[in-house]
């Protein structure tokens, strides 16, 4: 009798684990199909090339940057950043899971940090492109569209900027939105002061 119970329990456990595997496999297929649909196309962006192109366009005076160029670099920088993040996220998860072990942090951190820097650079270029799009659109009188580009630059940028006067993309975008609404007299957060 015990032998029969053992066989039945073992068979049940094997069936459950195979069922679980099948569900996981179906989930992977579904997720992969959604990602392929979302990121579409046939080519994967080359993040360093995308960044170099964005850098060249953003270095030009605002008047020489076309709306088409800015939209293109915002989209390509965002897409390239997403692809870099697919790798970075796995390093980040492993790093977080093993944060108590110094030897793991020392070995993983350099790789983790390189992907993070590249992803952040691409995001900053996207955000600068959004800010510049907003400025160009506001200048041409398209205030509604300008506002929402400013909003994207505002909401997607770092809350604080450690460089210079701390008035980075987020702060600049906020000033532009306030100007469009005629509420420039309301103060803005700049930086954590001690």
List the helices and strands and how they pair.
Elements: H1 2-39, H2 47-59, H3 67-97, H4 102-139, H5 143-156, H6 169-181
Helix pairs in contact: 2-3, 2-4, 3-4, 4-5, 4-6, 5-6
Keywords: Signal
Organism: Thalassotalea piscium
Protein name: Tetratricopeptide repeat protein
Total beta strand runs: 0
Question: Order of SSEs, N→C?
Answer: HHHHHH
Structural class: mainly alpha
Quaternary structure annotation: single chain
Spatial extent as radius of gyration: 24 Å
Q: How far do the termini sit from each other?
A: 74 Å
Number of helices: 6
Average pLDDT reading = 83
Strand-residue proportion: under 5%
Low-confidence stretches: 3-22
The global form is globular
The biggest sheet, with number of strands, parallel, antiparallel or mixed sense and barrel status, is: none
Query: What is the total domain count?
Result: 2
Helicity level: over 70%
Describe the structure.
- Keywords: Signal.
- This is Tetratricopeptide repeat protein.
- With 194 residues, the chain is mainly alpha-helical.
- The protein has 2 domains: 1-42; 45-181, no CATH class.
- It has 6 helices and no strands.
- The chain has helices at residues 2-39, 47-59, 67-97, 102-139, 143-156, 169-181.
- The protein starts with a helix and ends in a 13-residue tail after the last helix.
- Residues 3-22 have low confidence and may be disordered.
């Amino acid at each position: 009798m015990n032998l029969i119970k053992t066989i039945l329990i073992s068979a049940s456990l094997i069936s459950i684990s195979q069922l679980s595997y099948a569900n996981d496999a179906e989930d992977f297929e579904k997720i992969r199909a959604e990602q392929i649909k979302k990121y579409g196309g046939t080519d994967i962006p080359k993040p360093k090339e995308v960044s170099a192109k964005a850098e060249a366009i953003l270095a030009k005076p605002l008047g020489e940057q076309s709306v088409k160029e800015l939209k293109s670099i915002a989209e390509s920088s965002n897409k390239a950043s997403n692809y870099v993040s697919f790798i970075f996220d796995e390093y980040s998860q492993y790093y977080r899971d093993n944060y108590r072990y110094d030897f793991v942090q020392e070995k993983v951190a350099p790789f983790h940090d390189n992907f993070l820097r590249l992803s952040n650079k691409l995001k900053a270029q996207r955000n600068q492109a959004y800010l510049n799009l907003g400025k160009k659109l506001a200048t041409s009188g398209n205030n509604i569209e300008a506002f929402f580009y400013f909003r994207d630059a505002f909401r997607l940028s770092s809350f604080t900027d450690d460089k210079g006067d701390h008035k980075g993309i987020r702060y600049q975008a906020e000033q532009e939105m306030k100007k469009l609404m005629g509420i420039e007299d309301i103060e803005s957060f700049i930086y954590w002061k001690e």
